[in-house]
Amino acid sequence: MHVVSGIHALLLSSLVTAYRPCPLLGSVFQPPTSLCDTQTFQDALRDLTTALDHATEAGNSSYGPIPAESSAFSIGIFDANTPGDLFSYQSSSSHLRQGTEGVQEVSQDSVYRVGSLSKLITTYLFLIEVGPKYWREPITDFVSELADAARTCSSAENAVDCVDWSEVTLGALASHMAGIPRDCRFMLALQLSPTRY
Q1: Cβ neighbour number for residue 189 with a 10 Å cutoff
Q2: Contact 72, 106 (CB under 8 A)
Q3: How many Å apart are CA 185 and CA 32, to the nearest integer?
Q4: CA-closest candidate to residue 56, choices 70, 66, 44, 64
Q5: Global confidence as pTM
Q6: What are the pLDDT digits (tens) for 97-141?
């Protein structure tokens, strides 16, 4: 009976000591350097370029369609410790090439409107750093100008031009459920000083 228990204990201890998780990046395990010099990385970049070329030419990828007439994009991979790009790829749509104003050909220096992408990154960072505890709090608790706007422009009296900022939460802003009009900068100026307009 004791021999069986001893064997179980020995097996259990060998299993426990055999498992060693990968260390986190830091003083023990430094981040990789000179990635662009490795053959594996160069092969991966070549495969990525081939896959992107095929997807844009075919108008389709394993992740969904890429309509050539309306899809223009630029991809860049860089390392904060290495000057220059590790990878750069651009694709211009046929509509863009036929345009008479603005950019006709996408380059690595092209400027894009980021739209709500910045909101997504901000939301994720907020959730990582703070968590969801303020998610249902009104924005007026954090931005005094919006608290002023809520007092000077009543949405009950003018639902078209006034936003009831005291009812807008951080979660509603992040999820596009706040009901704020597209030209909010003008609307906010109207709310802060309604006599100017």
Answers
A1: 13
A2: yes
A3: 44
A4: 66
A5: 0.48
A6: 888 877 888 888 888 777 777 778 888 888 888 888 898 999 899
